[in-house]
Amino acid sequence: MQIAVTGKGAAVRSSAKDLKRAWLGRATARLTDEEREILGRAGKILKELLDR
């Protein structure tokens, strides 16, 4: 079975990604410098776990 994304489906997926990125940008803008630093370190740890 082969499944393909339609043009409309691709547009919806792209729009959803844009909305998530915009939300994340607004949310992280409200963090303190210390919180952003902690979040960055946590992200690095999560990436290391995924790479194992």
Q: Keywords for this structure?
A:
52 residues; mainly alpha; single chain
Cα shape:
flat
What is the count of β-strands? 0
Order of helices and strands: HH
Low-pLDDT stretches:
none
For this entry, what is the oligomeric state of its chains? single chain
Largest sheet: none
Count of runs of 4 or more consecutive helical residues: 2
Q: How many domains?
A: 1
Helix-strand category? mainly alpha
Our measurement of the CA-to-CA distance between the termini, rounded to an integer number of angstroms, reads: 32 Å
Using only CA atoms, what is the Rg? Answer: 16 Å
Strand content: under 5%
Give structural notes.
The mean pLDDT is about 95. The chain has one domain. It is mostly helical. It has helices spanning about 5-30, 35-50. Helix content is about 80%, strand content about 0%. The protein is built from two helices and no strands.
What's this model, at a glance?
This protein is mostly helical.
Please write out the topology.
Layout: H1 7-29, H2 33-51
